[in-house]
Design a protein that fits this description.
single chain, mainly alpha, Glycosyltransferase, about 60% helix
């Protein structure tokens, strides 16, 4: 648990409240875009799972009571899951979080919490497999040994978490940090706590004065990384070690300034040639997107991160 002066404490609480309200507005947008029969305008891969999760986080006392939750679950159930390309790691994470962190009891959730994997070799996908095993209480001793060795291999002395050995990506550093925090939440391993703090301090150090933070490597300035970074830094600041409040304020100001009146966010945060709303990769080929990017994977993930950040408590 951290302690601050009264001014810093007010800033912290204001910032946390702003994140929560932003997440609610984004969920309201997602609910408007989610057609009961057709689903989202641009089909997601794991976005229905995270939409259900963000809906449950928003309505924590009645986690499975909202229309958004039920509609997302309906389309999640209807997805074709036999493809080798199905993103099991993300879906299982969302379902496990629904069950383990938010106590949701639903047949679809129970069915999809069982450990399964696509097997993508990037390090962030490996970390998802580790946390999913933690959630499922099936992490064997050799998994723990392999995990610690992997962390040592994929983390630089400065604290950068690599997604591949020869590349640097601030977005995937942030997302890997996000997953490590969830692993720490399950394991409470002291050695992991120190790695998390160091990785968070590196993100803080590399952040520009205006809050720009994801300017290096794959996924530059995408909301996927910003959602992960917001949650990770606020978690560290609130629960592990105080960070630079000026940097945290700048990050919040930058991210939240991109939210549109309808509650939506662009997938890439940029001022020059800003993204139009409702675009997709196949039709529009937007700058800064990859073929696997869709608003309806990344916006639900961002909503989850904003709402979870809004619920953080000291020493969580």
């Amino acid at each position: 648990m951290q302690s601050w002066g009264s001014g810093q404490s007010r800033n912290l609480m204001d910032r946390i409240k702003q994140y929560q309200e932003s997440g609610k507005r984004l969920n309201a947008h997602l609910e408007r875009m989610l057609d009961s029969e057709k689903g989202f305008p641009d089909p997601p891969t794991w976005g229905y799972a995270f939409t259900a999760l963000s809906a449950a986080v928003q309505d924590d006392e009645n986690s499975s009571g909202s229309r958004l939750f039920h509609t997302a679950i309906k389309h999640l159930e209807q997805q074709e899951k036999n493809s080798r390309e199905y993103s099991w790691e993300f879906v299982v994470f969302a379902m496990q979080a629904l069950r383990c962190l938010h106590g949701v009891k639903h047949p679809c959730v129970e069915q999809l919490t069982r450990y399964r994997k696509k097997g993508t070799r990037m390090f962030n996908w490996y970390l998802l497999r580790v946390v999913n095993k933690y959630f499922d209480k099936r992490l064997a001793w050799y998994d723990r040994v392999t995990f610690r060795l992997a962390i040592n291999l994929y983390t630089t002395p400065e604290g950068m978490i690599l997604d591949e050995f020869k590349t640097r990506s601030l977005q995937y550093h942030a997302f890997s940090l996000f997953v490590l925090i969830h692993i720490y939440h399950e394991s409470k391993a002291e050695w992991l706590k120190n790695i998390i703090i160091k990785a968070g301090q590196l993100s803080e150090h590399l952040m520009m004065a205006d809050g720009t933070a994801l300017y290096l490597g794959r996924g530059q300035e995408q909301i996927f990384g910003y959602g992960a970074l917001v949650y990770s830094l606020e978690y560290i600041n609130r629960c592990l070690r105080a960070l630079d409040q000026t940097k945290l304020e700048a990050l919040a100001k930058r991210v939240l300034s991109f939210q549109r009146r309808d509650g939506s966010f662009p997938l890439v945060l940029r001022r020059i040639e800003p993204e139009l709303a409702g675009i997709n990769f196949s039709a529009d080929r937007p700058h800064g997107w990859y073929g696997y990017n869709t608003l309806y994977d990344y916006q639900p993930f961002l909503a989850y991160c904003l709402l979870r950040t809004g619920q953080l408590s000291d020493g969580e």
